[in-house]
Amino acid sequence: MKHLFTATVLLLGSAIAHAQSAHWTFTYTGFYDQEAGVFLPDMQIAGSFTGADLNGDGLLEREELTSLTIGAMDYVACAAGSNAYYHCGADSFAFSPERGLSFSLGEYGSDPEGLHSGGHLIETGKLSYDYQITPYNTAEHHLYWTDGTVLNMVSASAVSPVPEAPAWAMLLAGLGTAGCGALLRRRARPVRIAVRARA
Questions:
Q1: pLDDT by residue (tens digit) across 85-129?
Q2: Is the whole-model pTM more than 0.70?
Q3: Closest Cα partner for 153 from 53, 32, 23?
Q4: How far is CA 81 from the centre of its chain?
């Protein structure tokens, strides 16, 4: 009976986890370039994220992400605490089809003396900021969200709370196999025969 219960829990957990995984790609288009002093209608910030709504509240949050990629950088998998002078990661994240997408992330660092530093920060709805500082030069680039900034999102796998048919089939097959094993073990028990001694 213990094996039957274990098989049920594992297969059910696998089915639910499979059903909840989701992958989205997104593109923000149109930003105000502060340094150029113009709105750039074709400027884009594009990326993707993957995660699972583990608590089933309809909201995908930072701790439920397995990746958040912009360009070549995955802000979930990057080395956030590699040393005291470097930071990389997503500080906040929230997404639902009803409430939209919001996140704050960055990668920045400096040398121990603070002579050279640089980084990249993005906070949706506000700005994307790049900077590079050396003893000889400082370069900054600000892109601001405006009313003309448009978000386009595409789902590669939608979140669904109901396990798909193959997951149910795996669950039933596991239950059947565990049940057959329990029956066979019960039938294979040794039979004891009492023999009376003759007087």
A1: 888 999 999 999 999 999 999 999 998 888 899 999 999 999 999
A2: no
A3: 23
A4: 19
